[in-house]
Protein: Adenine DNA glycosylase
Amino acid sequence: MKDDLLNHFNIQGFQENLIAWYQANKRNLPWRENQDPYRVWVSEIMLQQTKVDTVIPYFQRFMEKFPDVYRLASADEQDVLKAWEGLGYYSRARNLQSAVREVVSEYDGKIPDNKEALGKLKGIGPYTKGAILSIAFQQPEPAVDGNVMRVLSRVLHITDNIAEAKVKKQFEPIVTKMISKEDPSSFNQGLMELGAMVCTPKSPLCLFCPVQEYCRAFLKGDQENLPIKSKAKKPKKVAYIALLLKQGKEKIIIEKRKEQGLLANLWQFPMIPSKGKTVHEAEEWFEAKYGWAIQIGKHAGKLKHVFTHLIWELEIYEADVLYAPKKSKLKSVNIHELSQYPFPVSHQKMMKYLH
DNA sequence: AATCCGGGGAC
DNA sequence: GTCCCAGGATT
Structure:
């Protein structure tokens, strides 16, 4: 990327227009009620790859349940995951709690206000570090997210592929040069708010843009073609037989997922990799893996669930327990107790087939 | 540098 | 269907 991007750029004029627009037009959001570093932190984690409107109710409930670092640090991880249920990227919740526990044990419960300590906490990367330092502590640190890259690639007419890590990193020194020393919080949030409300991915509202006069892409009529971003590859399909496995009339069998990887530590109905398997082979696979003898019965429906890099194709079957070992990975619970466990959305959809 | 990690909403 | 969202961790 060229290093003379800002040579003939009116940084002060850009700052003034952006901050004035932000102050006049910013949305009333729950995490903007004050600058409590804990609230800023939680909101920034929830907002990773997640829209504002999705986050709002989760943030409200999370703050009622875990109002400060001590309440979150001492909580049961399953309760934290339950509060995160449906929000996705569940490692965010587990990393957040792990980092909060470190803040309690190593920093006397006070969230660090320097980038060295903050950046070492689990789940806090370059963006979140800069967001907390600028918003909660008024430090002129860059916070480069997707909005900021889109806005600045247009304003400065940057044509590098923003999907590349090295290109992303190059936005940080640029923001460091552009950021307001007087109000870094409003500057960073202003860039993001502008990206969300005006400088949108498609059909940006340039006629209402407070920094239109500074925008090189608008000058060239190029705003619709920026930023440049290579496409992600398509997710792979994986087929499963998913079981509504009953034990008697009231009990249903569920299973806790592994500690690592996809949907870690969430609960699910038992799933059998079904590629090339007959129903009978699925029963045998299940007995070999769990030691439970089962009988698969009626086909109850099918579900397709799309992840970022994966597609689950679930064939849902009712099934009955013929024999259960005394000790098992599987758990037998009353149907009315299912709501106490954190389930991924795909398996919440499965619950509709229960009767 | 590439891959993994959710879910939803706008179009 | 496509895109992408206040990204980070792992390999």
User: Anything to note?
Assistant: The longest helix of chain A spans residues 91-106.
